Amino acid sequence: MRTMFAPAAVIAALFAIQPALAADPEAGAKIVKTKCGACHSTAAGKNVVGPSLHAIVGRHSSSVEGFRYSAANKAADLTWDEATLDKYLTSPKAVVPGTTMTFAGLKSETQRADVIAYLATLK
Ligand code: HEC
Fold first, then answer.
1. Is the CB of 52 under 6 A from ligand 1?
2. Can you give the pLDDT at residue 1?
């Protein structure tokens, strides 16, 4: 009986890691440059129109030092984990109503996954 479980577990694990494998951080870097770069730097401590995206993955919302966040972003009690970033980048306004991030959102799931995979490399 035990051997029956192993293949199922392996298959389940493969499905679970598939999206992570599919995400392409290099493609994400290009998207960040073109779609986010006008407002965000990826350099640590460099805030421009928006806060630095350095080490943003896993960070608490409104915690980048030296950036003046809107009241809306300050009120949002979020952790920028992959799932939350995915929702936010789909529609920033839907997740943080009143945000001053005037960005309509990335409709492509693949693009969002690539962007998040890239952001995760910024440590
Ligand atoms: C038009 C300018 C603009 C663009 C384009 C833009 N952002 Fe922003 N972003 C901002 C501003 C401004 C804020 C601060 C929002 C606030 O305080 O309400 C922000 C906030 C954020 C936050 C929350 C930061 C925190 O510390 O809570 C994340 C994450 C983020 N942006 C990611 C991105 C990504 C990824 C892209 C590209 C896909 C992007 N942004 C595109 C201006 C922009």
1. no
2. 57
**Is 51:64 a contact under the CB 8 Å cutoff?**
yes
- Separation of alpha carbons 29 and 45, rounded Å: 19
Q: For the segment 13-53, what is each residue's pLDDT rounded down to a tens digit?
A: 555 555 556 899 999 999 999 999 999 999 999 999 999 99
Phi, psi of 105 (to 5 degrees): 125, 160
Whether residue 27 has its Cβ less than 6 Å from ligand 1: no
In the block, which residue shows the tokens 């999206």?
19
pLDDT in tens, 110-120: 999 999 999 99
- Which residue is closest in CA terms to ligand 1's atom 23? 61
The residue type found at 110 is T
Quick check: CB of 101 below 6 Å from ligand 1? yes
Q: Which own/partner pairs from 45-53 qualify as long-range (CB within 8 Å, at least 24 positions apart)? A: 50/101, 53/119, 53/122
Q: Across the chain, which distance is largest between two alpha carbons, in Å? A: 60
